[in-house]
Amino acid sequence: MEKTGNPIMKAYSNEGEPEMFRVLTPDGEIVGTIDGKIDKSLMLKMYESMLLLRTFDRKSINLQRQGRMGTYAPFEGQEASQAGSALALSAGDWMFPTYRDHGAAIIHGQELYRVFLYWMAHFEGSICPEGKRILPPSVPIATQMVHAVGTAWASKIKGEKNVSIAYFGDGATSEGDFHEALNFAGVYKTPTIFFCQNNGYAISVPFEKQSASKTISQRAAAYDIHGVRVDGNDIFAVWLTVKEAVERALKGEGPTLIEAITFRYGAHTTADNPNIYRDQDEVSTFWRENRDPITRLKKYLNKEGYWNEEQEGMVLKQFNELIDAHLQKAEGYPKSNPLEMFKHVYAEESWHLKEQKQELNQILKKGVKK
Ligand SMILES: Cc1ncc(C[n+]2csc(CCOP(=O)(O)OP(=O)(O)O)c2C)c(N)n1
Predict the structure, then answer these.
(1) Is the whole model's pTM more than 0.90, yes or no?
(2) Over the chain, what is the mean pLDDT?
(3) pLDDT confidence tier of residue 177, bands split at 50, 70 and 90
(4) Which atom of ligand 1 is nearest to the CA of 198?
């Protein structure tokens, strides 16, 4: 396959490209206003959240490589989008993540061991955690967007003061569910936040080959809803954008479509080889070295004297211990039984699932070739 280069790099060039809301430059300089809305303690929370997520993500890839976890979808590079958006929510807000958004889910209160369980193929990894409004990760692309409109509409009818946020990628915007969700949300002015992480690729398909729209946020106009394009590697800008979307929704002003420009450094999943469709120099030089979300905030915090290497070392040690404790808990679960997957589809087992279950049972009895 011919490498197309990195279409999303154009978003960062200032030559005639559509505008993007940014507060913190890749050099760690404040160029926009944060209006006193982001104080030092929130900045440190943002930084530590991103560090936790990156540590968790890297550990997960290693676990998959060691055969201790199944296929895994990494999100390294997208930490500012995920942590920044989740930190702008309240505990009562509904979250609808995809398979790549466990970072956002963790920041919204999902426990680490449950995320491990999900990737270890335990059904317990797909249960909504008690008292928290975090739905299981959606693997069918864009379906969760419609669900997020449903819960938001219900909240509105009940007079509850909370929003629903749907996470999705650029690829999801070519699905019918994207249109249906935005259309319905626009008509009924539901308190829904459509949070798109435009990381430039739907597996191997670059955004410019997928859509003739220059941006995703411009599509908001078609539904007469609010649309914003934001630098998804600038956690200040992401947080401010989502916060404003929450405020608009709670005031009854309806949904917002947010396009966060970001990049995944790694593979689509651990079963994919991105070297085939992406230029790795661009990944490492353009993104990792020069536009990393964590380095960018660290530069700012260092300049302000809010953060130093000693603190970083201590926090990383705590995070590693925390992650290891959750891993131990997850690995302590009995091995998952593949036959259990049939239990959780319908309240009553349908005839075709019964047949499939019997077939699988026979295969399992014969033994699976390793
Ligand atoms: C309805 C549906 N069609 C196709 C797929 C196969 N598929 C899995 S991931 C993916 C690409 C999604 O890309 P994007 O929405 O940009 O999200 P990203 O993976 O970049 O986070 C596709 C097509 C699927 N899971 N569901």
Answers:
(1) yes
(2) 94
(3) very high
(4) 16
pLDDT tens-digit map of 23-61: 999 999 999 888 789 999 999 999 999 999 999 999 999
Q: Which residues pair with 195 in a beta bridge?
A: 167, 258
| pLDDT score, position 88 | 98
CB atoms < 10 A from the CB of 110, how many?
24
Closest residue to atom 9 of ligand 1, CA basis: 203
Burial class (CB in 10 A: 0-12, 13-18, 19+), 273: exposed
pLDDT at 115 over 50: yes
Q: How far is the CA of 362 from the centre of ligand 1 (A)?
A: 32
- Residue 6 in this model has a pLDDT that exceeds 60: no
- Whether residue 277 lies in the annotated active site: yes
The pLDDT of residue 1 is above 50: no
Ligand 1 proximity of 173 Cβ (cutoff 6 Å)? no
Can you tell me the mean pLDDT for 209-223? 95
How many angstroms separate the Cα of 192 from the Cα of each of 90, 183, 229? Answer: 14, 12, 17
Residues 283-298, mean pLDDT to the nearest whole number: 94
Contact yes or no for 83/272 (Cβ under 8 A): no
DSSP string, 179-215: HHHHHHHHHHT--EEEEEEE-SEETTEEHHHH-S-S-
Residue 143 CA, closest ligand 1 atom number: 1
Tokens at 56, concatenated: 């968790």
| Ligand 1 center to 202 CA (angstroms) | 6
Question: Of the candidates 134, 139, 168, 172, which has an alpha carbon nearest to the alpha carbon of residue 151?
Answer: 134
Cβ of 140 less than 6 Å from ligand 1: yes
Phi first, then psi, for residue 359 (nearest 5°) are: -60, -45
Q: Which amino acid is at 138?
A: S
In the three-class reduction of DSSP (H, G, I as helix; E, B as strand; rest coil), residue 344 is classed as helix
Residue having the nearest C-alpha atom to atom 3 of ligand 1: 141
Query: 3-state DSSP call for residue 257?
Result: strand
Lookup: tokens for 45? 């929370």
Catalytic residue among 54, 102, 268, 278: 268
pLDDT of residue 281: 84
